[in-house]
Write a structure and sequence with these properties.
Layout: E1 20-29, E2 32-36, E3 41-45, E4 58-65, E5 71-74, E6 86-94, E7 98-102, E8 109-112, E9 129-136, E10 142-146, H1 149-155, E11 167-176, E12 179-184, E13 189-193, E14 206-214, E15 220-223, H2 228-244, E16 249-250, H3 258-265, H4 269-281, E17 285-288, E18 291-294
Length: 298
């Protein structure tokens, strides 16, 4: 989608995971090369070498922790590193630890459960994507860090007024009880209030929404709920499917009490009547003596 930040290649006396640095090839060993900044050494394993190198060469590498937690170097430069953000795909999940994302290396990066939603049903699923950067803990181990609202504000783009009533698609980057936040491929930031969704989406999921307001600052309010005509079709099919379970007849119609409709179909009396009217207009059902029947029963 888009990136924030530039490559951090400022010479630092301390080698640290998550950085891209120019280092000097110091010496060769059977399993690769040791690189140095004249103060510390780090191993570049032969499996992480992408081109011919010789002792004395200065090369650019990415520093990370191998599976044993040791600081290592690779010539495979990911698009994400400390203070540089990108979208990363979720490849695994552990209910105690968190989720793991791929940054293009042999070892995946953990996004801690502490940084994920409280309820694990809102955690990203495999295939979802997170907009994030990298950070290290006090032991120098590398972790994923989700973008904050301030970071999103830096990369967002104002939406045009013409977007009103249009359908959009975006990735959920923040979930709250009051609503969901997503950002589109174009960089438009959208807020979906809890009243405009039937279910709370997962963090990192790709969602389609309908724009219901474009603010003066270019931020967007959107809805996950279908348009009235689409909702009518959904409700009509729900009623029809219910009638199929009853051999094409049900003891409900225009005169049925609202509380019964809500209990049986989880919809308002008005929505029920609109959907029923659509079914009758299309010749699929008819009403008689307070009952509704499939038309073929006549």
């Amino acid at each position: 989608m888009f990136h924030k930040g530039e490559r951090k290649d400022v010479f630092d006396l301390r080698l640290e995971a998550g950085l891209v640095l120019p280092l000097t090839v110091d010496r060769q060993v059977d399993f690769g090369f040791f690189l140095t900044n004249d103060y510390e050494d780090v191993l570049l394993h032969k499996g992480e070498i992408l081109e011919d190198i010789q002792v004395g060469d200065e090369i650019e590498v990415f520093l990370y922790n191998d599976k044993q937690g040791r600081l290592s170097a690779t010539m495979k430069i990911p698009t994400i590193r400390q203070d540089v953000y990108d979208w990363c795909e979720v490849v695994d999940s552990n209910e105690k630890l968190g989720v793991f994302v791929s940054i293009g290396l042999k070892k995946d990066i953990l996004v801690s459960a502490d940084d994920l939603p409280k309820f694990d049903e809102l955690w990203p699923a495999v295939g979802d994507q997170l907009y994030m950067t990298l950070k290290t803990d006090r032991n120098g181990l590398l972790y994923g860090k989700l973008a904050t609202e301030n970071v999103i504000d830096e990369i967002r783009k104002p939406a045009p007024k013409q977007l009103l009533n249009q359908d959009i698609e975006g990735r959920v980057y923040r979930v709250l009880r009051v609503g969901s936040f997503l950002i589109t491929e174009e960089g438009y930031r959208c807020f979906i209030h809890e009243s405009e969704r039937e279910e709370e989406p997962r963090l990192g999921s790709l969602m389609k929404a309908r724009v219901i307001d474009v603010k003066d600052d270019g931020n967007v309010n959107a809805s996950f709920l279908p348009r009235k005509q689409d909702k009518m079709s959904v409700d009509a099919e729900k009623i029809y499917a219910y009638m199929e379970t009853r051999a094409g007849a049900m003891p409900y119609g225009d005169k049925t009490q609202p509380d019964i409709i809500l209990d049986k179909f989880s919809m308002s009396k008005g929505a029920f009547k609109r959907a029923l009217g659509q079914l009758m207009k299309n010749g699929r059902v008819y009403q008689e003596d307070g009952w509704t029947y499939f038309s073929e029963r006549k």
